[in-house]
Amino acid sequence: MSRRVTTRTPILDRECLIEALESCNYQYDIQGDTIVVRAKGIAYNTIKYIQKNTYSSGKSSYSVKYEEYEHEKMVDSIESHYLKFYKAKLERLERERLEEEARKERERLEAYKQAQKEQIIAKAQQRGYKVKEVKKGDKIQLVCVRYT
Asked: What is the pTM of this model?
């Protein structure tokens, strides 16, 4: 007899789900939107389905359907491992997002500095100066020189 179980955690990420199945040492086959999971070490061939559901909001999740009631521990095991991998993925994405924002800010600052430098050089050249660039450590000093 089969039974459909809704997990406490919405399983939204297929990669994390597959990582969870691998860390639980479950054998699985991917068949389109369905992942067929075979419980390892069980004498009879019980087939578990983790099937994609699409809601009206456009988000998709996976629900679990399995054939034997006593294998609820399997679902709990997959869910706990999934949570671990999903949280790690969210933390990695947040770090990447912060790194990307920091990189964009550095680029913006560098572009501002370059624009200021070009503006100063153009203004000095309009007034008849030649501009020399002198680097002192990590700073740049622009020296205006006029020969008369």
From this structure: 0.62
